[in-house]
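Progress narrative, Year 2. Work on Zona pellucida binding protein 2 from Pelusios castaneus advanced from sequence curation to structure prediction during this period.
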Amino acid sequence: WWEYVRRAAALISLFQHCWLFNSFSCIAVNIYVKVYTNSPFLVCMDLALSQKEVIDPNYLWIGPDGKNLKGNYINLTETGKLMVRSFQVAMSGSYTCTLSYKTIKTDIQEEREKFKTYKFMVYAYREPDYTYQISVRFTTKECRLAANGQFFEELKKILDDLISDLTCHVIEPSYKCHVIKIPKHGLLDELFVTFQVNPFAPGWEAVCQQISYDCEDVTNRRVQEPARC
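Result:
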């Protein structure tokens, strides 16, 4: 819920900025960057302008905190392209570039300065490098039994308890009941249960607070331990 509030506040700030600069082409481009990776290059120019001659271009990048972008985590090229290194959740927000350039009419020696603003809403995201999808089958007396659903709910609780200390959790659990014809035997009712084990359960960051290296890598490796997760 708080993530939606934060994003809404960022969008309101973005629209206010557009209004102040009287920019009617102020459309934000959404960019999603996996945490601890480098962002793609954000280009401070549109396609139409890139096909033309641009005189005395100057690029001003403003970050989510409203300040000029600078620091070791910033890679800014001479042509105004921006890359944010080792992107983290706190870096999410609005990245705005104002391009100023000149147009010159040689016949009357008229020189004008123009401005264009480009905006990017950049968000950090996480995803596991590894997940295990597990499928198991259980025999039941009859597919129409209400007890099948009760069994499934109890199974989910048991699985969560087994892996809770590892800050792993079960996601997308589901089950279906099918009638199976077994060779040389009669019909058999079976529950087909599937689920995934995901390493990013609530509390995984707190567990890793004392680790000086990449906590996310540690968490991803944890799910590779079938004997534990």
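The longest helix spans residues 2-20. Helices lie at 2-20, 47-50, 147-163, 204-207, 215-222.
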